[in-house]
Amino acid sequence: MRRLIVHFWQAAGPATDDAPTGEVVAVYAIYEGQRIEGRYFPPTRHLEITSGALAGRSYKSPSGAAIAVVQSVNPKVRPNRNGWSFWTVTETRMLLQSIRGDG
């Protein structure tokens, strides 16, 4: 139940289509009650974790970073996660997928 509430809270950002401006997008994830901060780089789509046990590590994709967080926090579960729905844009409180560009 807690995961559903957290997921709902993460998805319930302001209703806007405006993506944050700039080269770097501040993001966070809440997993197992822990808030993990990061920075997403749209041009290369890599994500750097900036807080917690994995601070300073960079991953080639949001999903790679999400998997690393899950493995670090709860190694007993399957770590596969979709990073686009795992990370939240700090500025808008919308899921990272809200600024995903597929072009």
Class per helix and strand makeup: alpha+beta
Are there runs of 5+ residues with pLDDT below 50, and where?
1-21
Largest sheet: 5 strands, antiparallel
Strand order of the largest sheet: 4-3-2-1-5
Give the percentage of residues in beta strands. Answer: 15-25%
Kindly state the percentage of residues in helix.
Answer: 25-40%
> What is the CA-CA span between the terminal residues?
36 Å
* General form: globular
Concise overview:
This protein has three helices and five strands. The protein is an alpha+beta fold and 103 residues long.
How does the SSE layout of this entry go?
Layout: H1 2-11, E1 25-31, E2 34-41, E3 46-49, E4 58-59, H2 62-73, H3 83-86, E5 88-89
Antiparallel strand pairs: 1-2, 1-5, 2-3, 3-4
Can you offer a commentary on this structure?
The protein is an alpha+beta fold and 103 residues long. 25% of the residues lie in helices and 22% in strands. It has 3 helices and 5 strands; from the N terminus they run αββββααβ. A 5-stranded antiparallel beta sheet has the order 4-3-2-1-5. The longest helix is centred in the middle third of the chain and has 12 residues, at 62-73. The protein is globular. The N and C termini lie far apart (36 Å).
